[in-house]
Amino acid sequence: MADPEIVVTRRWPEPVEAELRRRFPSVRLNTDDTPLGPEGLRRALAEADVVLPTVSDQLPAELFDGPVRTRFLGNFGVGYNHIDAAAAAKAGIVVTNTPGVLTDATADTAMTLLLMAARRAGEGERELRAGRWTGWRPTHLLGTGVTGKTLGIIGMGRIGAAVARRAHFGFGMSVDFYDPTPNVAHHGVPGARQLSKIDDVLDGADFVSLHMPGGGDNHHVIDAARLKRMKPTAFLVNTARGDVVDQTALAEALRDGTIAGAGLDVYEGEPAVPAELRELDNVVLLPHLGSATTETRTAMGMLVLDNLQAYVEGREPPCRVA
Ligand code: DGY
């Protein structure tokens, strides 16, 4: 493919856009960063050889029904449950993602949420900025210590393992985890125990961090019944995908003390965040910042480019998922 028509759906970090322009002079960048929406995406699929979407673009099966010129979808991001990859493949499209390069940044965000929730950092900041802080006192905003506690990880892939290592080596936490792959051994955490059921992890953990893909069987895998399995002193952290947690059940569990608190970076139907969560003080809410460092977002973009370069040269893209 000599000079493919390329549509980029959002703004990318400047060095990556510059490199894209250098290699593919006719690339169509999204300079004002307005989401294309369903109609814009349908048009892009009909007109461009290559579309480079990201998590904020929904590409369900029906978008691949009409006339499709696109042959390559290079997702800017590791999670791709916003793309019906099976439908894309059926339409003859190669799909790639960006694993690996965002592991550390996302693990850092999970730890940020864990610490903020445990130490009531969001509440404290809101109090101070509102001019309500009246000074130090022995009983002011007491949180929960993390050192030596048990962290439960659901999904011991790259990011889950990176969170487990931070928690173990940085905070002396012990780790229990669930992963559907038997005998996961590459996590690098001494004493980490792989339990055979999610419920067993939830029963014993002081903190639970979610690291499974969204969609499919993982939809609402943390529901009211599973929240009830957790200790009333425990905290839930989600940097994976919003739909893995039933948000209505979570708001209820946070309100009635079923669990102590939560830290969320992702939401079902984002950027909408339910008012019932926004009203609660015992949940920390971040706007999907998991991979949001300059270094990481640049590396993600460069990896999309590597995938695309391989595709246009007729090689197998390094991160092909469909
Ligand atoms: C991903 O890559 O899947 C993230 O959620 C976007 O940072």
Task: Produce a short descriptive summary.
The chain is built from eleven helices and eleven strands. With 322 residues, it is an alpha/beta fold.
Topology:
Elements: E1 6-8, H1 14-23, H2 37-47, E2 50-52, E3 72-74, H3 85-90, E4 94-96, H4 103-118, H5 121-129, E5 150-154, H6 158-171, E6 174-178, E7 193-194, H7 198-204, E8 207-210, H8 224-229, E9 235-238, H9 247-255, E10 261-264, H10 275-278, E11 283-285, H11 294-312
Bound molecules: (2R)-2,3-dihydroxypropanoic acid (DGY).
Structural features, described:
The protein is 34% helix and 12% strand. The chain has helices spanning 14-23, 37-47, 85-90, 103-118, 121-129, 158-171, 198-204, 224-229, 247-255, 275-278, 294-312; strands at residues 6-8, 50-52, 72-74, 94-96, 150-154, 174-178, 193-194, 207-210, 235-238, 261-264, 283-285. Strand 10, helix 10 and strand 11 form a beta-alpha-beta unit. Helix 1 (14-23) runs parallel beside helix 11 and helix 4 (103-118) crosses helix 6 (158-171). The two termini are 19 Å apart. (2R)-2,3-dihydroxypropanoic acid is lined by residues 55, 77-79, 102, 290-291.
Tags for this entry?
alpha/beta, 322 residues, Rossmann fold, 11 helices, 4-stranded parallel sheet, 12% strand, binds (2R)-2,3-dihydroxypropanoic acid, 2 domains
Order of strands, widest sheet: 7-6-5-8-9-10-11
- Total DSSP helices: 11
- CATH topology group of the largest domain: Rossmann fold
**Quaternary organisation:** single chain
- Overall body shape: globular
Largest sheet: 7 strands, parallel
Question: Which ligands, by name, code or SMILES, are bound?
Answer: (2R)-2,3-dihydroxypropanoic acid
Query: What CATH architecture of the largest domain would you give?
Result: 3-Layer(aba) Sandwich
What is the alpha-carbon Rg in Å? 21 Å
Give the % helix.
Answer: 25-40%
Unreliable residue stretches: none
Total domains, how many? 2
CATH homologous superfamily of the largest domain - what is it?
A: NAD(P)-binding Rossmann-like Domain
Per DSSP, what share of the residues sits in E-state strands of 2 or more residues? 5-15%
